[in-house]
Request: fold
Amino acid sequence: MDRPANQNRPTVDAVLARISDGYYSVNSAWQFTDVNRQALQILDCSAEDLLGKDLWEVFPGLRGSVFEEGYRRVMLQREPEELKAYYPDHQRWYEVQAYPTDDGLSVYFRNVTDIVNVDAKLKQSEQRLQKMADSIPQIVWICDAQGNAQYINQKWSDFTGFPFDALLVQDQISAILHEDDRDATLCAWERSRSDGREFYAEHRMKSASGEYRWFMARAQPEIDPETRQILGWFGTSTDIHEQKLAQMALEISEARYNSLFNSIDEGFCVIEMLFDPAGNPVDYRFVDVNPVFEQQTGLHDVIGKTVKQMVPQHESYWYEIYGDVALTGQPVRFENEAKALQRWYDVYAFRIDAPEDRHVAVLFKDITERKVTERQLLLDSQRKDEFLAMLAHELRNPLAPISAAADLLRLAQPDDARVRKSSEIISRQVRHMTSLINDLLDVSRVTSGLVSLDSAATDLRQILLEAQEQTRPLIESRRHHFSSTMPSEAMIVRGDSKRLIQIFSNLLNNAAKYTPEGGIISLRGEVRENEVDIVVADNGIGMSPSLVKNAFELFTQAERTADRAQGGLGIGLALVKSLVELHGGRVVGSSAGLNEGSEFRVTLPLMVSHAVHVPLGDDPTHNALEPLRLMVVDDNEDAARMLAMFLEAAGHEVIVEFESRRALERAAIERPSVCLLDVGLPDIDGYELARRLKRNPDTADMTLIAITGYGQEKDRLNTAQAGFSHHFVKPVSTDALMTLLTEIAVSRQPG
Reply:
């Protein structure tokens, strides 16, 4: 059974009294049947002013209003309705909810004038904001926290041709971004959304006309101050196309400049000239340098510093040259020495930038090595000229007695004494000329690295004895006092005996030549733990400090005077140094000065650290040997006959031929033991003649000796390949030839 309505009234009244909205009800006759306290306050009236009264009479302003239309629809259609309208009588905005009841309708209402005014102001503000946003040149955009576009100003549509559509704008943005910039832009946007940092990107967007233009996009997040959560994003996209193109052009220009600047393989710098109040150039500051600058100058970290700070002793003429370029604008090319840097430079300087900047560009190259080489070439040229003069002098000296001896032999029937004396003179002078030529050839071979040593364990004491024997005639002729001091134990070194003798005979010869008659020369050997020192000393003319410094250089020679006819070619000490170094040793020279004598010390490695006492003995001699049958082949008939006469005088049987073909035939018949063949034969050269002799079984076992004017290593290799066993250079050393023939004779003896 339902409870009567009046039994629920206290509860309804209590609820209506507590709600914030105003409430009233009317019956179907539009008479007020109920009203709550809040409605009386809002309407500023009492319950007696309303209850039982007609709605339209109490509030005549409702007639014809939105509210009347709504109330009547609710009454008629029995459906609730929400209304919001301005009520002029109260100058208020009311928000109303009307509900149908059994006998009429109930109305809940509230004064929303303040809210409506705020909304209106907000709308007005938004309209102003939109107008302002549409008037600025940037594209302005607003996104929610998830990055969904909520607003984009008119510039978006003006540029892209797309009307703003929040549902389509993401796809539109992706479509108009340049494909080369799309991924980087979207990645940057996602990073900013995830960490809340400012969004920044530069990218190209396609306009409605199809043109791509550069834009700079920026967006700042709106952060809730309490939760620190992102509420949304406010951003702009600014057209930077012209600036970007200018920047790119500048970057390309700078890249080209830097590429050129850094690729120059010469030193390059830009300097700012500094002048005193009187206008005189006094210093310069480094503005820029390329990587090669440090290599060419040895200066580091110079940008912003002055040259006086870096090189206080820098010469003033550099300031004058560069200062003139800065003031006049005239470029200059020159070579000059920077003594403070100990370098020479080839320089090209020219003005750059505005004249008032006083900037000078300097392109330079370190030519110190070239200058040193030029000075050395000049010195070498002078030495060469001096050497040629000496060579002419030295070669003329022996030619004079040779010529005189030859003339003497032609004048009349010479007696045996004159023949013998003339022969001795000719032989001696020829040996002297041969020695000069051999020295020249030795220097050429040694400096070209073509000398190979025939090394063996050798006692230096025996070497020094033989060197003394070679130089004894000169020492005795100049009446020098000679002394030799050697240790009793052997001084065993590994070396080429012939070359070692050459070293020490050269030093002894020098001592004898450069010591006045009656001087003192000493030779001493000193053994140390792993080395042996051989010292040649004299009390002769000595050496100046400059000569000591260059004594071992080619063509260096002490000053010659008229009484020093033994001057030589100035190549002896250079040869000594090269040969000593080939033996793993070293040589030094010293002198207290001019007329104070000289000392040369040769140091060689000992082969045996604990030397053994070995007495020096005489060379063995051979018993009398059987003479050899020899063949001499040379197209120079005089040379062939003279050599044959010498060999016959030595006791050998000699056959002479002047043509290769005749030599082949006669060799097969006579079968000589040894053939001395000139290499430069006209019809069949000596190489081919040797090969044919070796191929013929009748002559294959003959010993072949090459006689030639060529003595380089390649010439010796050629003769060896052709079948020659020995190689002699013209003029032939008769002593060496006789020694070889003796060795051949010994080897051919039975048993």
About this structure: Confidence is low (pLDDT under 50) at residues 1-6, 560-567, 609-615, 617-623. Residues 481 and 520 are 5 Å apart (CA to CA). The first strand starts at residue 22 and ends at 27.
